[in-house]
């Protein structure tokens, strides 16, 4: 019997549990801030290192490869994708290459790559973009390409630092926001992401979706199209699947994503592609060679019976059969996120009661009494989420909405909010 041996770069303990359950032997390379002791019990070996630093990573993975003979490499976490590609290239393992992973990480490189395509259909998937270094560059981009446009980091995630600019008068304030973001020292995943380069790109109008796919040796299968709720800004407030789309629009989205994945060279594994259905057709916002965050993978598992995290490690060794067509949904699923007024958390109410209700996938709260809640400036500033099922998408959305009304995060407002110090704010968990 052939042994399945894998190198896992970063990620969740759940990934390791699933690999072990499949009989896959693996070595883990993990950042010290993300290590949990259970990993040592599941893995053949654990290497503690900053895997984004190639000078550190290279000798470690070379030694581990000689000692343990892993034949594949995988990562499900954003900061691990490019390192996994680099390791695969260096050792000749045949996974997604560093070049492809970097195209998906670097939003400006992705835009330039699509713009340089010889195919008009591929070029139509994208919009004009330019790297910017100050307020004057923002104003120049607006003068050339019109308003509104979007300012965002080249390689961040979770809607961090994404701003819509509607006129030249906003340029100075927007760039001041860039400098303030770069100066922050409290960012989640701060060990992995440095807020450096920024791009301006044309704003894409229309409803927003994410598309969860799995590619089997170059054949891309759409697993689900997910509706996104973003409110007035870019911070995501909720997701629901399957998306409520007309048949013609759904087909256009499927074809656009397959065209995009072909264009960037992704042939195997999961991808999470965000797009908008603009008046001229689907246009790509960004994509990642991993499963979607915000627990979209849990919505997918509930509605379609697909454990995408398991597939990512299983497909490496042919332990799951290749799909030939889109799966059918068993029911619908939705999530809404919880937020709270800035301040100190006093109490979280209603979570246990909400978890016991019918149709609830999970109620997750990420704060405890004594924690500090900041302004809602990115996805990491949310305080939890609720996940629910329904017979159809409308019913699932309604069920998730009702759950937000049952979970309350009580905070003591900061004195600079205008509320008296020590006065609790009874803030509903609704995003």
Question: Can you give keywords for this protein?
Answer:
20 strands, eight-stranded antiparallel beta sheet, 14 helices, disordered C terminus, single chain, globular, four-stranded parallel beta sheet, 32% helix, alpha+beta, 431 residues
Offer a concise description of the structure.
It is built from 14 helices and 20 strands. The protein has 431 residues and is an alpha+beta fold. The termini are far apart.
Structure description:
There is one protein chain. The protein is of the alpha+beta class and 431 residues long. 32% of the residues lie in helices and 27% in strands. The C terminus is likely disordered.
Q: Based on CA inertia axes, which overall geometry fits?
A: globular
Strand content: 25-35%
Number of helices: 14
Mean pLDDT: 90
Order of adjacent strands in the largest pleated sheet: 13-12-9-10-11-14-18-16
Largest sheet: 8 strands, antiparallel
Number of strands: 20
* Helix fraction by DSSP (H/I, runs of at least 4): 25-40%
Distance separating the two termini: 51 Å
Low-confidence stretches: 417-431
Q: Helix/strand/pairing class, anyone? A: alpha+beta
- Cα Rg: 22 Å
Reconstruct the topology from this structure:
Blueprint: E1 5-9, H1 13-21, E2 25-30, H2 38-42, E3 45-48, H3 54-68, E4 72-74, H4 81-91, H5 98-105, H6 107-115, H7 120-123, E5 129-132, H8 135-145, E6 149-153, E7 163-165, H9 171-183, E8 198-202, E9 208-216, E10 219-229, E11 238-241, H10 247-264, E12 269-278, E13 281-288, H11 296-304, H12 308-314, E14 332-338, E15 343-349, H13 351-355, E16 360-365, E17 372-373, E18 384-390, H14 393-406, E19 408-413, E20 425-428
Helix pairs in contact: 1-12, 4-5, 5-6, 8-9
């Amino acid at each position: 019997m052939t042994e399945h041996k894998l190198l896992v770069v970063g990620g969740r303990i759940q990934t390791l549990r699933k690999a072990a359950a499949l009989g896959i032997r693996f070595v883990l390379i993990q950042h010290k801030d993300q290590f949990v002791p259970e990993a040592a019990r599941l893995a053949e070996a654990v290497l503690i290192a900053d895997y984004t630093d190639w000078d550190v990573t290279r000798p470690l993975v070379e030694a581990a490869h000689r000692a343990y003979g892993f034949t594949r490499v995988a990562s499900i976490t954003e900061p691990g994708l490019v390192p996994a590609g680099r390791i695969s290239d260096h050792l000749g393992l045949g996974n997604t290459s560093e070049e492809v992973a970097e195209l998906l990480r670097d939003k400006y490189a992705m835009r330039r790559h699509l713009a340089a395509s010889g195919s008009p259909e591929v070029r139509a998937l994208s919009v004009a973009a330019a790297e910017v270094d100050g307020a004057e560059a923002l104003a120049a981009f607006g003068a050339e390409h019109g308003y509104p446009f979007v300012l965002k980091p080249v390689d961040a995630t979770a809607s961090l630092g994404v701003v819509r600019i509607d006129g030249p008068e906003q340029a100075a304030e927007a760039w001041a926001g860039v400098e303030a973001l770069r100066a922050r020292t409290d960012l989640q995943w701060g060990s992995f992401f440095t807020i450096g380069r920024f791009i301006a790109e044309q704003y894409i109008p229309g409803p927003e979706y994410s598309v969860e796919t799995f590619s089997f040796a170059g054949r891309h299968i759409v697993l689900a199209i997910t509706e996104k709720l973003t409110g007035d800004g870019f911070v995501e407030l909720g997701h629901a699947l399957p998306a409520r789309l007309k048949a013609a629009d759904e087909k256009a989205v499927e074809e656009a994503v397959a065209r995009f994945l072909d264009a960037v060279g992704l042939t195997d594994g999961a991808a999470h592609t965000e797009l908008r259905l603009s008046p001229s057709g689907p246009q790509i916002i960004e994509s990642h060679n991993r499963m979607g965050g915000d627990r979209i993978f849990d919505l997918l598992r509930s509605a379609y019976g697909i454990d995408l995290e398991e597939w990512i490690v299983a497909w490496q060794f042919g332990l799951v059969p290749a799909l030939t067509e889109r799966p059918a949904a068993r029911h619908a699923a939705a999530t809404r996120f919880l937020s709270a007024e800035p301040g100190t958390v006093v109490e979280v109410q209603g979570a246990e009661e909400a978890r016991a209700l019918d149709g609830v996938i999970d109620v997750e709260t990420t704060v405890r009494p004594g924690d500090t809640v900041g302004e809602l400036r990115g996805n990491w500033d949310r305080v939890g989420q609720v996940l629910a099922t329904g017979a159809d998408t409308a019913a699932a959305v309604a069920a998730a909405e009702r759950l937000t009304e049952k979970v309350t995060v009580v905070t003591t407002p900061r004195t600079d909010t205008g509320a008296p110090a020590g006065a609790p704010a009874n803030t509903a968990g609704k995003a």
